[in-house]
């Protein structure tokens, strides 16, 4: 993926998206349920920022070859 500036935007429908600054196309979408928003006491945007930050860092590691998946087949995600 070419290097570009990324931005995190909260859309009118409440979704929080990661997209390229020069493009309206969405790369990743996070949707928090009303229960999750209540549990996070309105800090869901800060949580989304942290989640996107970690994801971008991991994507960088993958693209640089620093991350190897050892197992093949389905994975259980926790």
From TrEMBL:
This is ABC transporter ATP-binding protein. It comes from Stutzerimonas xanthomarina.
């Amino acid at each position: 993926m070419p290097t570009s500036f990324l931005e995190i935007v909260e859309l009118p429908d409440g979704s929080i998206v990661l997209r390229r600054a020069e493009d309206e196309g969405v790369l990743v979408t996070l949707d928090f349920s009303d229960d999750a928003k209540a549990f996070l006491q309105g800090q869901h945007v800060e949580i989304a920022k942290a989640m996107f930050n970690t994801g971008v860092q991991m994507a960088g590691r993958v693209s640089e070859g620093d991350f190897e998946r050892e197992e093949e087949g389905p994975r259980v995600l926790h």
